[in-house]
Design brief:
alpha+beta; three-stranded antiparallel beta sheet; 39% helix; GIY-YIG endonuclease
Length: 269
């Protein structure tokens, strides 16, 4: 039970109650049943950048996070592979224990890519969420690994495999309409043209665009200064990365590339 004290005719509320009151008062949007309102959440937040909060309606605890784009981040919580790949996260354990049905989703603020981390930190400092083990917003954002360290991580990851259960869940999350190539097929002529273009590509890297890649197997996020360098690091190419971005923005789902990499392209407004 929450308690309050009377001091000089003012009510001094228990801090957790005050925090919850602030969340519900200042939140831009509230979704009390995120399971049934998933499509509405996608429609209202797809393509936006912002800070969100998951509130446990059973014990009053909450978690604050951010997304750029916002719904691509929120969509992770609807993917079985995410829970299998992140069993040690406090918020993941809470979802597994109580179920999403006992959580409310609140959008605290919309912002720009440049201001996202400072906005998230502002809310963490104000509300002190119990599910956030690390009190620093976006602690892995902006960190760049040296090439020698990247090579060490690649070597360390060689031979490392997901369990059959995780692989199965990842595969199922990318089937049907969630697959960017759903209902499509290339002709032999198109395949030849694509192959020739790749061999003779002269297009320079797109400047000024940061790309974050989370390696699910190593749980390491690396930031690259261009789409080209990001694509090269995982043995892909610019066109493939851009096609995936367009398709996944439209669907509001960020699925793992090659069942291993979560790719987020950071575009300036």
């Amino acid at each position: 039970m929450h308690k309050f004290l009377c001091t000089d005719s003012q009510l001094v509320w228990d801090y957790s109650l005050l925090s919850l009151a602030l969340i519900y008062k200042h939140g831009i949007k509230t979704y009390s049943n995120p399971i049934e309102t998933r499509e509405l959440i996608r429609e209202e937040n797809n393509g936006k950048v912002g800070v969100y909060c998951w509130v446990n309606n059973v014990n009053g605890k909450y978690y604050i996070g951010s997304g750029d784009p916002l719904y691509l981040r929120l969509s992770d919580y609807y993917q079985a592979w995410y829970f299998l790949a992140r069993p040690n996260l406090y918020i993941v354990r809470a979802f597994c224990k109580y179920g999403m049905i006992n959580f409310s989703l609140i959008i605290l603020e919309y912002t720009s890519s440049e201001n996202l981390i400072s906005c998230e930190q502002k809310w963490i400092d104000l509300l002190k969420p119990e599910y956030n083990i690390n009190p620093t917003a976006g602690s892995s954002k902006g960190y760049k690994h040296l090439e020698e360290n990247l090579e060490k991580m690649r070597s360390a990851a060689l031979g490392r495999k997901h369990t059959e259960e995780i692989r199965r869940e990842m595969s199922e999350s990318r089937r049907g309409i969630n697959n960017s190539f759903f209902g499509k097929t290339h002709t032999d002529e198109t395949k030849s043209i694509i192959s020739a273009e790749r061999r003779n590509r002269l297009v320079p890297p797109v400047p000024g665009i940061l790309v974050e890649i989370l390696d699910i197997e190593t749980d390491i996020t690396t930031t690259f200064n261009s789409i080209r360098s990001a694509a090269d690091s995982i043995g892909s190419d610019i066109k493939t990365i851009l096609r995936r971005e367009k398709s996944q923005l439209a669907k509001g789902i960020n699925t793992p590339y090659r069942k291993r990499y979560i790719i987020n392209i950071k575009r300036s407004d």
